[in-house]
Amino acid sequence: MFVETPARPGSARSVLSPAPTCAPRPAPGPAPSVRWAPLVAFVVAGIALTAVVATGYGLRQAVLLLLGLSLGFALFHSRFGFTSAWRQLVAVGNGAGLRAHALLLGTTATLFALVIGTNAGLFGSTPAPSAGPLGIALVLGAFLFGIGMQLGGACASGTLFAVGSGQGTIVLTLCGFVAGSVLYTWAYPLVADLPALPAVVLSEHIGWFGSWAVTIVALVAVVLVSRVVQARRNPPPVDVVPNARGAARIVRGAWPMLAGAVVLAVLGAGVLVVSGGAWGITSAFGLWGAKLLQTLGLHPETWAFWQQPAQAKMLAGPVLADKTSLTDFGIMIGAGIAAASAGMWVLHRSIPWRTALAAVIGGVIMGLGARLANGCNIGAYLAGIASGSLSGWIWGLAALAGTWVGLRGRALFGLSTPAPSDSVC
């Protein structure tokens, strides 16, 4: 939700500035008319899919789908971006997006501590923290993810809500994401044994209160540092333009990003309570790709990755039994409902070839990076830090370094000049 004053072409700032990629800003003035055709289509799809899941797979799975719908609705209206926040920080020193991250992380950490610390699960689930090993795969994967999301124009959550809102470029990013995930599963034996140390979870050493306290102190430090950086670099003013006022803003306008952070934290905690695991996104992409290959007559089930017991069980089962797939489908449908209600659902068909190429390449890199690092900006960064895992902090630092590289790579695809209607993901 941040827009920079356009810089002189060829200047250092223009090279590092964001280009339009996914969800557009609301335009000034009265809210546009509701897009009834896509709204009805998405509502019907949501109701039908919920009914199928509830009758075929049970109430727990249906609730996960509904949580996904709500996440998509909130992501669209708050335009909550990880890609844009890091891009703004690295490019011009604007730390507002990073401070919104801190609120999301702090609120989620608080809720995780309460849920996991009290074992407050539903449907027989046992809530557990998310943590990954500390090693080369984590650092390399997060670094690649940072590069990929700047080329592809969206992070994992941003990809889904942008696809739901009709952004054709990000559909290509999603295709690349799936392809990169499949490539990782095929090449799994090459990276399965990279050096790593065991996961470090603070609650196992200082309890859940201590873990929460350390996390909050660290996030406060992030906020303070971001303010110092912003004051020194003096970024151009941002332009935030809501297109609705009062109660209508909830369903038709742009939410404050900080409000979106709190809503997303609550919904993410809901996923933990219902499923026992944190909200994630990218593990489903490899599953979708493998299912597609099987439909085409190929046999990914013979690959080493899919012969692991947990992965084999996932591949053998239906997609709608997969927790992550359900929330992913829900995010896309929920974002579609939100975009159509706001009068902003537009299917973009004309995509410059260099932009399309960057989207696919960025998606592939993110797919590889997410699987190497055992998660994305949601499953590894958000869930890791909220769980008090050191892996989440390492992921964030490595992805920030990748963002610096990715920003420079954008110029190769003509993605360097901002437009007055800058977009966010």
Write a structural description.
The structure is a single chain. By secondary structure, this protein is mostly helical. The protein has one domain. It is built from 18 helices and four strands. The strands form two sheets. A two-stranded antiparallel ribbon has the order 1-4. It has a two-stranded antiparallel sheet with strand order 2-3. Helix 4 (83-92) packs across helix 18 (390-410), helix 5 (96-117) packs antiparallel against helix 10 (203-233) and helix 8 (168-186) runs parallel beside helix 16 (353-372). The termini are close together. 55% of the residues are buried. Residues 1-21 and 417-423 have low confidence and may be disordered.
Provide the fold topology.
Layout: H1 12-16, E1 23-24, H2 36-57, H3 59-78, H4 83-92, H5 96-117, E2 134-135, H6 136-152, H7 156-164, H8 168-186, H9 188-191, E3 196-197, H10 203-233, H11 249-252, H12 257-275, H13 283-295, H14 309-316, H15 323-341, H16 353-372, H17 377-386, H18 390-410, E4 423-424
Antiparallel strand pairs: 1-4, 2-3
